[in-house]
Design brief:
Helix content is about 40%, strand content about 20%. By secondary structure, the chain is an alpha/beta fold.
């Protein structure tokens, strides 16, 4: 993790000659095993089959001029229409010779389609050339058009962009792992560019987090634990009832829990815009498996599917999972049953159940 980035759009690099289907399958697989971090975009193509089959797994499409240069503007109308109908995103990097024309065409014909203009439409890498003088005057009138900041490297341009189009339309972006000098920390450079802009902390928060969250994360989401969660998460755990503490056997494992928080691993947080809803902690095993150590949802959020959401999240990341529960913990036993876990073994007294799940 870099600079506190816990969620990111990711897509295959759209170089000339790329095998789009292979690249898209790769990003889908990478996202499945890194659901806490990656929100995938597919590379654009006229055939909608892959997008239709993965519609609940992706945020939208990445369009690059390598794929659309010298292609008639209406060639991808059916694709834009599909994105608009299903509230998916188009992240677009048009060729500099058609930036205004192409974006204007898309927005006029598909006005509700959410479009993110890569690099804010800048002309040359590591500059803000054309953004304020050409791109903004021509395109700022279009609703649902956003501007991302990767590879601009000019704090003044970003500050002026915010003043011209509004902070709600500017998103932090990074070209990682491309477009960096040898041994350069790309995240640091792109992060510092925003930090050094003459903007309030509230506006920077919108650029780094709030705008992304409102576009892509909706009502709730899962992310990897952060050091910043230390106090809130420990307070949540300390407030768990004595009966549930026994079910979770949490008191014997607090040193490990604290170490996981410090290392920012093995714990996944389910939260909304206001608070942590719950968490799950796993301990990794061989052959891409894991043991579920604890799963907990705050009482006021129970019976709403959040526990199953956490389990399905782990099922996407791992090839097999196991867990131990007390038989008397009826809620968690029901949750495992509904999530297609099976009882692998019972203790002699029948008080503890060993659960197992596998993709195979």
């Amino acid at each position: 993790m870099k600079k506190g980035i816990f969620k990111a759009l990711a897509f295959p690099f759209p170089f000339k000659g790329v095998k789009i289907d292979v690249a898209n399958e790769y990003i889908l697989e990478a996202a499945e095993h890194n659901q806490d971090m990656i929100i995938p975009l597919l590379l654009i193509k006229p055939d909608l089959t892959v997008l239709e089959n993965s519609i609940n797994r992706v945020a939208g499409l990445k369009e690059h001029f390598y794929f659309t240069e010298d292609v008639p503007l209406n060639e991808y109308d059916h694709v834009y229409d599909f994105l608009q109908q299903h509230n998916l995103i188009l992240l677009i990097h048009p060729h500099m010779k058609e930036r205004i024309e192409r974006i204007s065409y898309i927005k006029k014909n598909f006005p509700k389609l959410k479009v993110i203009l890569a690099h804010s439409g800048r002309k040359w890498i590591f500059t803000g050339d054309d953004v304020i003088d050409i791109i903004v005057p021509k395109l700022k009138k279009f609703e649902h058009l956003y501007f991302e900041t990767s590879s601009i490297r000019d704090s003044k341009t970003v500050a002026e962009l915010v003043n011209k189009v509004g902070a709600e339309r500017v998103l932090f972006g990074s070209d990682f792992p491309c477009c960096q000098e040898k041994e350069e920390d790309l995240y640091f450079c792109e992060f510092e560019m925003i930090e050094n802009a003459k903007l309030s902390d509230d506006i920077k928060e919108k650029i780094f987090i709030t705008n992304f969250r409102e576009i892509f994360l909706k009502n709730y989401w899962i992310r990897r634990v952060s050091k910043k969660d230390h106090d809130v998460l420990l307070n949540l755990i300390n407030g768990i009832s004595s009966q549930e503490r026994k079910f979770l056997a949490i008191d014997k494992k607090m040193a490990v829990v604290k170490d996981n928080i410090r290392r920012e691993n093995h714990i996944f947080i389910l939260e909304n815009t206001k608070e942590i809803i719950g968490f799950v902690r796993e301990s990794g095993r061989s052959e891409n498996g894991a043991v579920i150590e604890e799963i907990f949802i705050k009482e006021q959020f129970r019976q709403k599917g959040y526990g199953k959401h956490l389990l399905l999240f782990l099922c996407g990341m791992f090839d097999w999972l196991s867990a131990k529960t007390y038989t008397a913990n009826k809620n968690i036993c029901t949750l495992f049953e509904k999530s297609k876990f099976r009882i692998q073994e019972k203790t002699k007294k029948g008080t503890i159940l060993n659960w197992f799940w596998t993709k195979k």
